[in-house]
Known about the structure:
The chain is of the alpha/beta class. It has five domains: 2-216, Pyruvate-ferredoxin oxidoreductase, PFOR, domain III (Pyruvate-ferredoxin Oxidoreductase, domain 3), CATH 3.40.920; 235-428 and 913-921, Thiamin diphosphate (ThDP)-binding fold, Pyr/PP domains (Rossmann fold), CATH 3.40.50; 430-501, no CATH class; 503-613, Rossmann fold (3-Layer(aba) Sandwich); 629-705 and 720-884, Rossmann fold. It is 36% helix and 18% strand. The chain has a nine-stranded mixed β-sheet with strand order 17-25-24-26-27-31-30-33-32, sandwiched between helices. It comes from Geodia barretti (Barrett's horny sponge). Residues 806-890 form the Pyruvate ferredoxin oxidoreductase beta subunit C-terminal domain. This is 2-oxoacid:ferredoxin oxidoreductase subunit alpha.
Amino acid sequence: MIGGPQGSGVESAANIFSRVCARLGYRIFGKREFYSNIKGEHSYFVVRVSDKKIHSGVSSVTLMVSYDAETIFRHCFEVVPGGGILYDSDLADVSIDDVHTLDGPFKARIRRMFLSAGKQPTVASILEMSRARGVMLYPVSFRGTLAEIAQREDNPKIKGMVRMFNTIGVSLSMGLLRMPPGPLFSSIEFVFSKKPKVAMLNRQVANFAYSYASASFSGFRHFLSSVPKEPHTMLVQGFHGTAIGKMVCGCRFQPYYPITPASDESVYLESNAILDTIGDRPGSTVVVQTEDEISAIGMTIGGALTGTRSSTCTSGPGFSLMAECLGWAGMNEVPIVVTNYQRSGPATGLPTRHGQDDLLFAIHAGHGEFPRIVYASGDIEESFYDTARCFNYADVYQVPVIHLMDKFLASSTVTCQRFDPELVEIDRGKLLERIERDDYRRFEQTSDGISPRSKLGLENGIFWNTGDESDEYGHITEDPVTRVEMMDKRMGKLDRILQSVPDEDQAVSFGVSEHTVVSWGSAKGPIVDAILMLQDEGIKVGFVQIKMLHPFPSGLVDFLLKDAKTIIDVEANHSGQLGKILRQNTGREPDYYILKYSGRIMTCTEIYNALKHYKTDVHNDWCPGCGDFGIVNAIQMAMAELQIPRHQAAIFSGIGCSGKTSHFINVYGIHTLHGRVLPFAQGAKLTNPQMTVVAAGGDGDGLGIGAGHFVAAGRRNIDMTYIVFDNGVYGLTKGQASPTLRLGEKTKSLPTPNANYNVNPIGLAVVSGFTFVARGYSYDVRHLKDLIKAAIAHPGLAFLDVLQPCPTYNDINTRDWYAGHDLATESQARHSRIYKLEDQGYDPVVHYSGGAEVDERLSQALIRSLEWDSKIPIGVFYKNELVGPYEHRIINNIPNYMENPPAAQSIARNAKPRTDISGLLDSLEI
């Protein structure tokens, strides 16, 4: 164990030690524990070393290296008799009251212990108590060591480099363990390969500390020499399995929002975005950091609609936000993969601690009923192959797949055999590459319940999606017969999944006896190790690992447990969630529960002790006179005049009245969720940048619940168009005030005047970064058509606010009001409130990059956006083509992005991966 303050180099030291042990031929299991804190709070790393294959950690410590007093107070009693504590001798006089990062309950427990022993609560006292238990003590002044090295190397800078405590600690421990020094120095060179000067200084420090320990320390009975090394052994961290699995199975788009412990996977994917391929142009994975998790899954869905294998990764709080979009994907049979790295909940819970809390939620997340697969990996090596399976399941059955990982796996470091991409099969299911006739039905009823799947951009493959119930074409329907047919079609997939997925991929038996453990996920490792420990004592315990958790393989699990007289459920949650599922699906109740929910990962020692004693530890239904008719007509005319091929265009819409827009235009129509149209649309555009993508939605949809996505989209400047239907009310919910209704206005549907200030859509778009900002009027269709054409042609993110009177609920901003009927007086004829900016010589265009002109154009746009009441401008407020779109920033990292975007990439040849990961695997080999 190595412990110290967060940010002091604990992880670096543990990684060096692990790498050295692996190069000497040992098998490694390392776990990292840390507080939700950037710097200063307690952090520690435990590395278990064995000459046999191991799957988990143990509860005891043989050698502890401490950089601070807190590590000694917290962990010294975990060190076994005959073990050792290597510590900074400058800490001897530190009292427990001097350690401000220790929490109150822990301090109280330690004080009681000292009081009963009649000792002062200091480091020296607790170390003396450890010595009395038979623990060897090895004090070294870390600062003194740095000073001595600085003097010897004639380099005064070394004296103040306290971050080198980590190198001192790991080098001293290696000298104490009599490990050969060569791998130590080569590991330092590897870890600091990009910082040669740092590597040189660390090598000097390591050489001195190693020599000092070898010459000065004695009496320690534990040694690590070299052992025969298995060929093709890798040293990997928790995210390597899923990340490399995604690369090799063809995932080419991963939006994500940063969250512990999931972020490392996306960072690794982005760091290795350009992919070598076999016999083809280089591929790439586009990784996008989104504004929130709703945007992440929305983009993922948008990407999947282009035929791109798309996924996102998150943890419990983020997965909670994804629930509605998950249902949309299930209803629209969109194949996505969501990797959920579970942690302790609920709410924020313990952000950096372990838990298997999300099983029941993953199965039931989202309102209504829709098919999904919930699949759990048991270890890092398994997760590589499982990731490929999850994408195949998503494609073949056209369902969202939730791949359950957790903090245990995410924060582990292990040795394992090199991943073998030859064992990976890629199956895209019924994804179509060619459609001969123009009568495609996306949700066609078939004998197996799975419809041939088109993708955005495929000629003759036009389809429509919606969050409402739909017919075979994807158009909204409320017909009860069709509803039953579609529900049966979707939900029937669950039986087909269980019938066609091989048994060994659903549940695995590690031998069944009278006493059998059932479990899932990362509990596998400590269970397997504990069972082996029991076998050495002549105690036989079986184990059934369930991987397919939904749909649940009831018949298979019942068969695997048929000879078990005692069932023991082992999980890292409070309620025994798998036990509930087992009882619900098989009628068998676990006899015992071994549950851990402290936030710390299970060890095989705990499972061993518990098992030994069985402890319980398209019909248009808009209102007559609705302005939406004019907007749809304008969009249709604009696309016709631009001569955009139907299969190269997609309309994404939100919900409400405007949400139905996507059903009325004969291009791809994607009817999404409330406020989530932008993430869906951005995902499609980024994975298939050749598509013409238009997003459309209401003012409540885009500027209320979707406002966060609006601002974040402006920051990106993706080359697409967003049209907002602006009428001041929520139409389908009976006319409540939307964000654009003015303060104090009382429509006939409001019981009292509106109490909120309005959002200024033009101003918000300008300051958010949209590079084309305009306003149109739904009753001036020709002018609106020209604005839409200009917006679509603009090389960047275009926003078009369309004033659209609601004849049913907004009796203030009516068509007559915009026409100025109320402005007529005896001396003055009525005049329209609306005027065109271009008629007044207004110039919205930025002609020169940088300088005062940009500020001038932005300022004049903001000033004009404030005009209302008797003068309301329409036209283009701001246009800047000199700001490169987001796609150009992707090209900076992935040069062939436009020529070979994610949706166009070939990921398999003869059902085998085309991605060549040999270089990555080579770098991980020891």
